[in-house]
Design goal:
Blueprint lengths: L2 H7 L5 E2 L7 H11 L11 E6 L2 H10 L5 H4 L2 E8 L5 H13 L5 H16 L3 H25 L3 E5 L4 H7 L6 E10 L1 E3 L9 H4 L7
Antiparallel strand pairs: 1-6, 2-3, 3-5, 4-5
Helix pairs in contact: 2-7, 3-8, 5-6
Bound molecules: flavin mononucleotide (FMN).
Pfam family, one: Nitroreductase
Family: Belongs to the nitroreductase family.
InterPro entries: Nitroreductase (IPR029479), Nitroreductase-like (IPR000415)
Length: 208
């Protein structure tokens, strides 16, 4: 199916077959492809925390305001951004790997690495949070498209208590939780939703 078709047909699905299993190989393959998404300076800050322990799912249920997809969907992923990805060591390592792979020469390696280090150097925590949110969101959308292409249904969730979720799953301050994604076999189609007419959302050169 084309990307256009997936986007036209995809709905947020809120009811899943709890007996339907998706293998970890399939999830790994979806994540591997989603990781090819564009990301700032290629620092690769997105982390995918897969929750497959039923006890943990039950723990998350009330934290996510009893949204049944948390326990019914085959796969539940906490989409995280890793603040340590901004560390100089990580930036140097990634550019060294690109150099070793033969993708660029030494001077481009050094130029790109230093440009990235300088880009993040003076950013506030709030700025870095926005950087992580951008990167994780792009990877999330890729994952949703890939999962739908593979014949699964999905839903994105921000309807949960962030602090309680991090406490329940022992997620440290190193990580920013951006959203939850549930993937599985839907038992009830997601309801249709409207979108603004395209002419209401396109502006040219200025916005008022
Ligand atoms: C960041 C984000 C958070 C969302 N959180 C929830 C949620 O917690 N619960 C829910 O039922 N739907 C959630 N949704 C789904 C939206 O309600 C849904 O995408 C929107 O109504 C459009 O419907 P559609 O996805 O079926 O096209 C979320 C979507 C996004 C992008």
């Amino acid at each position: 199916m084309s990307v256009k078709n997936i986007l036209e047909k995809r709905r947020s699905v809120r009811h899943y077959d709890p007996s339907y299993k998706i293998s970890s190989e399939i999830i790994t393959s979806l994540v591997e492809t989603a990781s090819k998404s564009p990301n700032g300076n290629n620092i690769q800050a997105t982390r995918y925390l897969i929750i497959d322990e039923p006890d943990l799912r039950n723990l998350i249920l009330p934290i996510a305001f009893n949204q049944q997809q948390v326990i019914e969907a085959s796969t539940l992923i906490v989409m995280l951004g890793d603040y340590q990805a901004f560390d100089k060591e990580n930036i140097i390592r990634i550019h060294e790997e690109g150099f070793q792979a033969g993708y660029f020469d030494e001077s481009l390696r050094d130029y790109l690495a230093h440009a990235a280090i300088n880009y993040y150097k003076n950013k506030s925590t709030e700025d870095l949070k926005i950087e992580l949110t951008r990167d994780v969101s792009l990877a999330s959308m890729s994952l949703i498209l890939l999962a739908n292409e593979a014949g699964f249904d999905t839903i994105t969730m921000s309807g949960y208590d962030s602090k309680k979720l991090k406490d329940a799953l022992n997620i440290s301050e190193r990580y920013l939780d951006v959203m939850l994604i549930a993937i599985g076999k839907g038992t009830k189609a997601g309801h249709k939703t409207v979108r603004h007419n395209v002419n209401e959302i396109i502006y040219k050169n200025e916005i008022i």
